[in-house]
Amino acid sequence: MAWGEWQTVEGDGFDFDEIRYEKKWHDELEGGIARVTIDKPEKYNAMTLSTVEEMFRAFYDANHDTSLGAIVVAGSGKHFGVGGDVEWEKWGLRNAFYFRYPHNRLIRQSRKPVIAAVHGYCLGGHNHMAYCCDFTIAAESAKFGQAGPKVSSPADGFFVPYLTKVVGAKKAREMWMMCRRYPADQALEMGLVNKVVPDAELDAAVDAWCEELLAVSPGCLEILKAAFDQEMDGYQEMGVISGEYYPDWFDSAEGKEGGAAFSEKRTPRFWKIRREAKGD
């Protein structure tokens, strides 16, 4: 089966700095797909608010294009991505953490099925974006994991407990709390991904899955996706951090320490900060 070439979407509202937005159509199946690629390889595709805002514009267009049957999310260069830009979080915004939520809502509220095409590092915000996608195809080079507690960047909201539905409660807590990294074969065994292929075959594998999606009723897929995503509505959107637990987390010494240690390439001194707070 034959695919046309990727065509970059350009024009008013589509002048992007941090992503590439493309579409292509299948010659026989007549439908098409969109691809949103985070295009910051020099920074391991780390995300900021600007990245998410550009993704929103691309997703909005793709979801309103009736000729498209699926959306692919990808990363430029050697890696899918490493989550939030720690330097940006450190110097940019008091509540910079919250930029992570919108990109997961894009996946959750998308009318079209979303496929994550993962290679290299898939960490932090990129990891929970990938597991919130409808499907995840991984290259053999892929490595998955969370890093928040290592850099004192906490998370709450629907996408944290949702991982229990993907890999089970014990494994989900292990991933989020222990900050371990999982290679592609282990991610497949855990149920974190749907399929693992050699790196050179990743694009072809994603195309093959898209062909299967284009071969069935797009309206039925939209209904099924919405039905599956309703499950997330039982989870709180956000609230633990901003509520009774740590309302001032981002102004606290411990909240700032992880990003500072990462930038200075040193080991965080979390327990030293806690001892000092007690007056020890």
Q: What is the overall number of helices?
A: 12
SSE succession = EEEHEHHEEHEEHHEHEHHHHH
By CATH, the superfamily of the largest domain comes out as 2-enoyl-CoA Hydratase, Chain A, domain 1
Helix content: 40-55%
Radius of gyration: 19 Å
The 3D shape can be described as globular
Query: How many structural domains are formed by the residues?
Result: 2
Largest sheet: 7 strands, mixed
Q: What would you say this structure looks like, in words?
A:
This protein is an alpha/beta fold and 280 residues long. It has two domains: 7-234, 2-enoyl-CoA Hydratase, Chain A, domain 1 (Alpha-Beta Complex); 248-278, no CATH class. Helix content is 41%, strand content 16%. The protein is built from twelve helices and ten strands. It is globular, with a radius of gyration of 19 Å. Mean pLDDT is 89; it is low at 91-100.
Which features does this protein show?
280 residues; 7-stranded mixed sheet; 41% helix; 3-stranded mixed sheet; alpha/beta; globular; 2-enoyl-CoA Hydratase, Chain A, domain 1; 12 helices; 2 domains
